[in-house]
Records
---
Amino acid sequence: MRKIVFILGLISIIGCQKKITTTKVEEKQKEFVWEGANVYFLLTDRFNNGDVSNDINFKRKDDAAKLRGFKGGDIKGITKKIEEGYFTDLGINAIWMTPIVEQIHAGTDEGTGKSYGFHGYWTKDWTAIDPNFGTKEDVKELVETAHKNGIRILLDAVINHTGPVTDEDPVWPADWVRTTPNCEYSNYKNTISCTLVSNLPDIKTESNENVALPPQLIAKWKKEGRYEQEVQELDDFFARTKYPRAPRFYIIKWLTDYITEFGIDGYRVDTVKHTEENVWQEFRKECDYYFAKYKENNPEKVLDTNEFYLVGEVYNYGISSGTAFDFGDKKVNYFDKAFNSLINFEIKWNAKQQQPEEVFARYDSLLHTDLKNYGIFNYMSSHDDGMPFDKERKKSFKTAEMLLLTPGTSQVYYGDEIARELSVDGATGDANLRSFMNWGKLATDERTKAILKHWQKIGQFRANHPAIGAGKHQLISKKNGVVFSRVRKDDKVIVGINLEKGIKEINIASIFKKGDQLKEVYSNQNFVVENDVLKINSDSNIILLERD
């Protein structure tokens, strides 16, 4: 673990506090629970360019519409930032990357100008890494580097569809995909047995019929000299599982290979509600099988006892729905024998329309009743949500507080922590949300640096205390701001936001006792408890209080 060295000068003690001297604090081995994780979500192509030699492949050109082509970000770039400590400094303990599998080779016009598969959701070959992102060796290095730094890796799984059809990317056989009708989204059937948009062939995930490999994959694998190996692995998979050679089981096999080969920790799953729910139960079963085998075969690489993590994107699911997503004519529980967590599309609205203490109390209540033993994945901005919490980036400090301090798993979208712009001149639609990470601004702009420091302080506090996301919430006071506690087992903290600057009187009696040595992390002050009220003098309006 990294060691954090604090050199403390004399501390001005007010009222009931005594001065104490500390020269070094070593980070202890922390419990990790996905329900309280701090996840960083990035577009692989848009985060950091670690290898300029792989920026152009397959005759791809720089002729796409604004922000709809490859920009050079890659796996090596992510690894470099892990090594530099960027994620650790931000309190990140898991990284979710957009799909890294090989994308369609050509560009296509999706109604917003020419686009390429830079985002990773236009699959051509599930068994290969797209060279624009890197190599299998790069993935192995990424996972190993992340794990050495206490960071888990989530890849992104797409089972619902292939990439669009182009002259270089022919449509898959008719027993694999449907190309009509387009989804209408008004009931269960016309949300799953259809194509999401035109020219995005839909995998026939309902089929149990044996199908042969697509001829374009056979030709590709033979050209690459790995046809026999891929076929043998498929034969072994189907012999073990006794599944029919139906389209979904091929893809499940290909996706679980990333567990076996690299030891990834989980998947974020795309377009969940557009596929029959039994598919995700089958996917869960195979992920668990291969994760257990990986741990058995690689005991020295095991980080903890957590199971393989699956978080699903059920578009428009919100915490208010509990365990049931309502299609209008049918309700489906996607948690059942499938997902640990679902992305919560509701939090941004709650944070806009309700006071913090109302949001915190409600989420705590639901997570300990209707959603007990399950999780939610909170976010304030993302790659395809055109109505983020703070599109103009005027509330970056509040965004950090509401995202990182609300019960549940937090998902930091790349650049949230440095106010990366979400409205770009010349871009249309979701391209606005996908600009390249603004590293240059971080190096030169003082406000950007201040925003990052705020996110780092709260993020590290969250990472050090699973109680923040996964503990029990209790309001202490809402006078002159909001003060509350979070408790999970022996992990106990007190947090205050929207407080007055200067002297703050915090009632700590419900959590801490006389003689406890405490640290207020945000202002880096240390105290010894003498009575029920702690006086803290700082120039910030937030406190993060822990037992030292």
---
Amino acid sequence: MTDQSTNSPDAKGIEQVAIDGATPSERIAGPARWVVVSGTLLSLVLVINQLFNIQLFGIVLIEGRYLYILGGMFLALSFLIFQMRGGKGGVPSLLDWALFALALGSTSYLAATAQSNLSQGWEYAAPQMAQYISVVFFLLVLEACRRAGGLVLFLIVTFFAFYPTFAGIVPDPFSGFQSTFMQTVPYHIYSAESSFGIPMKAFGGVVIGFILFGAVLQRTGGGQFFNDLALGLVGGYRGGAAKVSIFASGFMGSMSGSVISNVLTTGAVSIPAMRKTGFSAKTAAATEACASTGGVLMPPIMGATAFIMASFLSRPYVEIALAAAIPSILFYWGLFTGIDAYAAKRGLKGLPKPDLPRLKEVMIEGWPYIFVFALLLYMMIGLRQESSAPFYATALLLVVNQFRARFRLNMARLGNMIVGVGMGLAELTAILLGVGLIVGSFSATGLAGTLVNELVFMAGDSTLVLLLMGALTAFIFGMGMTVTACYIFLAVVLAPALEAGGLNQLAVHLFILYWGMVSYITPPVALGAFAASTMAGSNPIATGFEAMRLGGVIYIAPFFFVLNPALIGQAPAWEVVVALSSALIGVAMISSALQGYISLVGPLSGAAGLPLRMLLFFGGLLIAKPHTELINLGYGASFLIGAALCALPMLVAWRARQAEPEPA
């Protein structure tokens, strides 16, 4: 079999990462490697013992002690994994080892005194020694957050972590209850509302299992299988290389929860393939950036964020995943139709047949991955065992993997995989502990309630104004922050205000998640687009604007489903079907308008091109528009008006296509 994904040098590198289990930048040398492996394994044993109630050696931990040990262990490992000046791996310095030891020491104290903390309310009246230890742990959290999350996240977290110390002198509406430094820090560390609040509870309960499953799946050939599957399904059609990127990056992003790592992993294969088949550098990079961004919003896994959302809303994860399905379909459908229109407009072909994997052979080789996923979904949806499902699926994956020579784990590969898992968990822990400080500050100062009232008052009676304010807020705070960190912050600051405006709670949380992700493809930050442009050799800003055009649906779809909960499945079945059908047609028209070409119809070019594209765009909006009281038009009337607006552009495009000369 000749396989495009395994013939190119880039693809071979990605495949080797999947086999070896670590990229060069993630390799840790010397004693630090064994410490990371040991710490990761001990932490996973702790998690399994706690979640499955095994009571190994008779150990039964209260929740606070369990979270202190788990969080403290990965916090300590983060100082060996992340370098002082940024980057992963390498050889830790003496300072890194000192911070590692300090983190373990303070964690031991927190774990040993967890029962006293619980019974005596140390968040408000901690003994003097406990106060000093809390300061040490607090500073360690900030430093780990800086290393793992970057400077922007560190500055945001630090500002809000200290906010209670000056909240009383801040002008309204941002003023709140003021505390001293030695009142604020123990509250952050010992309360269940700050560093060890909802984010860490979700991590210790559900998230860690899915992070483990995603990492093991990627490092046992799962990424290669799904890339080959996408190639076999759509690689031969026009724009096939880009369509493969949509499927492969969407799936990988759902597992990893990281836009940047997704771009760097799948982009190494997809971007050269797109360039080879005629895509411009900026369009290839923009496609990868959009596909990777959407992966974080796509069920069934959605990275770690969906599980934290489930904890915030006190709802089953399955309910979150099902609600996110339709918005995700709309986003990827919009991206797919936009790519198809781009390829048709430029006469681009698919990948040559000899370069495509044979679908039958791909399925024969990769059926175990589908079986493992079926088990995972059955346990999550059928049995409602969300905490244990990923562990069973991971165990099955490891067993099946040993019967496949290509990806079989030997001791070296197993060690690399454990190090990779430890790196991912340490990174997420450092970020969650840091972002938890923001949550704690809003709780300590009472600011969350104040902001809710002020935002609702400023919006007046206008739901649309409130949503626009919310979208702008989410976009601003999403710049430079990780997906999970951004969502947690917005769930505390913004979501209550939108809910107070009478909007559906679940739709609101998905709305802020989508608008928090917009910054990954929108200049001036556009981290996803900039990462992809580096790989493609394109201009970063031009790539960002191209990503905005290709992924334009991400700006519109959140307004659709927050105004009409039928688009997240919160309505009778007939209404969900009608709303989804209309939205799919409307989104296709919107994507065609943005590209200037209607798939299967023809181009919109020449002097009348721009007005016709605007007409098609607004027609698509009306067709996709949800049934809402904001605009007093039902599905039928809105669809008919939109179709009438689209009729002229479609007629002109069809006639333009008929007038094109036959290809030689």
---
Amino acid sequence: MAGKIRARDIEEVKARTNIADLVGEYVQLKPAGVGSLKGLCPFHDEKSPSFTVRPSDGFYKCFGCGEGGDAIKFVQQLEKLTFTEAIEKLAGRISFQLTYEEGGGQQVDHGLRNRILAANLAAAEFYQQQLPKPESEVGRDFLKGRGFDRAAAEHFGIGFAPKAWSELYNHLKSTGFTDDELLAAALVTKGDRGFYDKFRGRLIWPIRDAANAVIGFGARKLFDDDNGPKYLNSSDTLVYHKSQVLYGIDLAKKEISKQQQVVVVEGYTDVMACHLAGITTAVATCGTAFGDDHIRLLNRMLTSDTKPAEVIFTFDPDAAGQKAAMRAYNDSGKFNAQTFVAVGPDGLDPCDLRSARGDEAVVEMISKRRPIYEFALKQKIAPFDLSSVEGRVAAARAAAPVISSIRDAAMRPAYIRELAGWVGLEVGEIAGLVEVSAKQSRSDAVNSLRRDQQLVPPPIDEGAEPSAYPAVNLRDPIQMFERQVLEVLIQVPESFTREQAARIVLSGFSAPTHIAIGAAIESSLDHFGTARFLPEVMGALPDELHGVLLEVAGKELPAIDQDGLIRYGRGVISKATASVLMREKNELLAALRRTDADLEPQTYAELQRQLVAIEKERREATLS
């Protein structure tokens, strides 16, 4: 039976753990006032930092999702650990020896997760010890053939898995690990002939997390009689989830935060080539496509206010590489950064390029990155014959959705001009196609939701209670304007800021239906400006209001082009903001009238101060 950690030790671990250093291993933190640090919350998606750490108090708090606590709770929540496992992880981080009660004084690790990490570390050391041996020459030759010497292998911790059946298993068993622990770590497999090593006769890369713990391995085939895949990765375990892991993040995390740049390559040797060439922000996925979990991991490090962050993808020029590039384009709006594509000369990846032409060529490849929108546009027009009018129009029509999907409205005119030049059409013609695409995209989103919801009129029940959401009277000027505001909030995110939206939906509506939709918008602002926004709003609404939301989302707005649409949206938002400010002013005036200046002088003075601030803001909004 596992012993209980001594209470005195728990307090000692908490006292010795600097919560700012701990959180800083996962989140880029910046000064935010006296004694506070701020960054992007690791527990929910957000664009503006609302996650605060106070090192002197030893606590963190997110004012977006409400999560908060001490260092122990942070590790528990982020890594899905039990209380005991979190204490053990923090103790290991500061090299503190825990004492366990009720267990005869034994000082051992009781958490399976910690045992898996210990087994992984022991396996990594075993593999590294094998690489210099004579029977590992094939592995050394592989590295040498790609321009990696012994120092490079040691820097990245590369090792070799013996070809024998169970050398790692026997070694780890002799050091005290159990069969169950080695199976849980996915280091061995059990067959009819007993236990045998998962990796045999392969070059081994240890995969580490941001805190530098070995969580898994990648293994490259070396022998012709190996019938397995070229690259074999660890199976998912308690500590390793390949959809959430980036190889090289342990080496790159500080430079990513410092340079506000990350280079996403396709393999382990590409990461090595980039780092050795001086591109120390390179990472790669581990046998899986680049996905949302990877984006969330990087976004926590890309939070600079002083320089635009960059995510640079490198892809092979083959069909698979082009497909991956278009997936990256589809995800580009999810980054807190500008996205780019870098393609090597003659289609060489970073590893082959470094081997053939040296470090400088890799640096030059990354420096010649191109915006991902430009890359996507050229991919769209590539299949068409641009020597004919029909081909040019078809190419422009195929590329228009790329431009209409650009969230930064200021960038669209520039890409419209670029596309017009590439296909030989007038700027106005391209702008018209982009506008058609934008309208079609909005219509498709609404129709998709209609199909998903399969909306049908509810059956009439004459004995039912009255609805909490009576029909909106759109002949009433106030309710009609509220509907216009909702239409803009849903359809034209380019015309307002997230802060404006939050202020309007919190106090800008009177009709119960509009209040409910406003509340759903407020709860979905983490997805503001993305394709997920409308579905998230619908998910936050009562079923009976889904039809109203679809009417709002599908309403044709009075504008003939995208610029006109944005101008219309800004006008509506400006009027709505002024209305909110006037309402807030009237509420403060009413509160001031109810307050006795002699009996409550401090309250009276504060209300006056707020009134002055509101009036100043209202006048500035009116002038703008």
